[in-house]
Amino acid sequence: MNEPITNPLFQRAVFLSSAPDLAATPDDSGYEVAFAGRSNAGKSSAINAICHQNGLARTSKTPGRTQQLVFFRLDDERRLVDLPGYGFAKVSLTIKRRWQQLMERYLERRSSLKGLVVVMDIRHPLTAIDQQMIDWGIAAGLPLLLLLTKADKLKRSGIARNLNEVRKALSAAPVPVQVIAFSAVSRLGLNQAQDQVMNWLGLPAQASAAVAEADLATTPNT
After folding, report:
1. Residue of 50, 128, 150, 160 with fewest CB within 10 Å of its CB?
2. What is the separation, in whole angstroms, between the first and last Cα of the chain?
3. Domain segments of the chain as ranges
4. What's the rounded Cα separation, in Å, for the pair 215 and 151?
5. pLDDT exceeding 70 applies to what percent of the chain?
């Protein structure tokens, strides 16, 4: 498997602020890329892997831990944003609705937001609530990157099958959609994910767009 390329920009990521509502967000300027995902789909682990850090985004086995918009600073003009996990069962309906309204409004109104990363467990992609998040991104006119995480838990044939199914399901989307098999454990798809985020941040990519496919081709079929 190709080795991940260390990216200094992502290594510099630090916590900037958290916001319970749009009024508390940083100035709406520059470039932002947001990460959304069903609870326990591996969103925090994906952010940490992309940023070459272990504890930047807080991971937890407790669904719904991320309850606000969490901003990470890359430089004076660029930020990553961790959105509240969705699909959780152990919080009140009122809280669920509040978080969903916050995410929907953020996606629709944030002019500095250049792309949306939707994190889905490759074994259970495109649930109804995943589709809702994707629909919100499409309605906001945002290009999408779908990270199918935990790919290390499937055989190569299973990865390829699920990739094809998700790509087919989103093939008619009116916005650009990229679908990548991803693993925070094996680093499968890491370089390609970084490339797409770099592009949205207004910077040149540093890895080949074919890296993830090459990684998949060399992944042991076990």
Report:
1. 128
2. 14
3. 8-217
4. 12
5. 85
